[in-house]
Specification:
Length: 144
């Protein structure tokens, strides 16, 4: 097995850390609904657009978007990789919010700048998670 997986000979190499396929938002219908009806939290490096389902299992599905205005495919793919890694490192913040609330969330991180530093993105993810928690709590209290 290559790619950093555990080898059968007992040698342990670095494991791949990545988001499970079930945590990735897919499908035209999901994206259309998200961008038509979603709420947005704006930031300097990225925007966070989300919709909260009324009932569910407390799961979150995310997408990572980089528009053509950022540059060529290499630049856009790097932006999405950086956003994905920053989310992976701070996903526990988002997952805890959703699990405590018990509703399903579909969200997208939309890159706004072509050059982003990972540490800065992780810090911004934390502040977005805090604002997201506050908005979800406010929506929950308004629904009662």
């Amino acid at each position: 097995m290559s790619g950093g997986q555990n080898k059968p000979e007992g040698k342990v190499t670095m494991r791949r850390h990545r988001l499970p396929r079930t945590a990735i938002l897919r499908g035209k219908k999901a994206f259309t609904g998200l961008f038509a009806d979603g709420k947005a939290l704006r930031g300097r490096d990225f925007d966070f657009k989300y919709t909260v389902g009324a009932t569910g299992t407390g799961s979150i599905k995310v997408a990572f978007v980089a528009g053509k205005r950022l540059g060529g495919a290499v630049v856009r793919n790097r932006c999405k990789r950086m956003l994905r890694e920053a989310y992976r490192l701070s996903q526990h913040l988002f997952v805890d919010i959703v699990r405590n609330d018990g509703r399903d969330v579909e969200a997208a991180f939309i890159a706004k700048r072509p050059v982003m530093e990972l540490q800065e993105l992780v810090r911004h993810m934390g502040s977005v998670a805090t604002r997201f928690r506050d908005q979800v709590a406010a929506e929950g209290s308004n629904a009662v």
